[in-house]
Amino acid sequence: MKKIYILAFATLFLQSAVAQKLDRSQKPKPGPAPAIAFSDPVIYKLPNGITVLVVENHKLPKVTATYSVDRGPVTEGAKSGVSSIMGGMLNEGTTTKTKNQFDEAVDALGADVSVYSTGGRASALTRYFDQAFMLMAEALRNPAFPEASFQKLKSQSLTSFKASERNAKVISGRVVDAISFGVNHPNGEFDSEKSVNSITLDDVKASYKKYITPSRGYLTFVGDIKPEAAKALAIKAMGDWKGNTLTLEKLTKVNNAPKTEIDLIDLPTAVQAEIAVTNLVDLPLGSPDYHAVLLANQILGGGADAKLFTNLREKHGFTYGAYSSVGSGRFQSKFNAYAAVRNEKVDSAVVEFLNEIKIMRTQKVSSEDLQNAKNLYNGSFALGLENPERVAGFASNILLNGLPKDFYRTYLQKINAVTADDILRVSKKYFGYDDVRIVIVGKQEVILPGLKKLPYTIKFYDKYAAPVTAAVTP
Fold it and tell me: How many CB atoms sit inside 10 A of residue 195's CB?
């Protein structure tokens, strides 16, 4: 018994000694960036233009295939919404199976098969995958386009418009893009009751014929499958597929506002106002600024530890959360800082948004803020490599964007090489201050008096981004 007491005392003593050595007031120093190691996919090119990528992963007896058409932004004009309805119609049966028969065939395999306006996806256990993939190919290649389904989907779209008429978030998403890009730009146009009502079944079939094609098609297999088997399956299902030859639409570059302006949309029923501080950016993935912009956005508005959140929520209590995002890629996109704010605090919130953006543009970020942002990217990037579909996405991104083959292997090196000077430089370049649009959707009679005290021109728009000269009623 005495030995037991002595052993227990010794254990407690050792635990106490270890605890005394820990200084919990100091954060642990970050370790080195994780080493990035992953295998390149096997790539094939089919004669009809489809690029096949295969990422083997035999840990689980499961395979997923994704087919996507790289069509880029597409202008639909007066028929805006036709692609959405077309994508829905692809799930309404084939020329040999009704919708119920098709769904039953998928369910019998325990598979997941879906098709949409830019491609399709099939996922199943290895033993059933070939059948699931053939069903996806059938849905893409031989849709039935039944009239009754067309009328159903069209009615659902119109009902959705009615349901969102007074939704400030939906209205904001629509008008921010429309005002920023212009309603005649594919990134600025939007569906409406008028455009959907004008769509015919022939319009849907024409959209299908133009865009569902092997041209600019990328077929990715991920999972328990050998490259040779994947290629053979791709040839069997899609090798003889012919279709329209796609070219990317040429887009005119859109300019930012000549000077900062407030664009106000009246929504008398709004309890909270949606605020978006936005400007257009050009940020290709291959840009030398890319990694620095990612970190700058993380520091400004990437989460609950970022500057916008701690200011607008924690310090002032204006909102439940304030964030920012920045687009990237081959096409013009936008920087956007946003929050839902109490109507009576909108003017104050606008001031704080602009203050935080100005600080990013004029002052170096602290070493702690920069390191925290790097740590987040180091951890999340390495963790994402556990998903083989992520690796497949890397490969297609490299092909689509013309990136160097080591772009993702050197990703964390480039993230960790970013300096505070880099953050300051890209903040000035990409986070607008003198040429932003401050788009506000809310209760105008409460918001407007405060906004008039700010040194910005105020423009008025309706819920569909059409200019108005006075307050409008919904």
Answer: 18
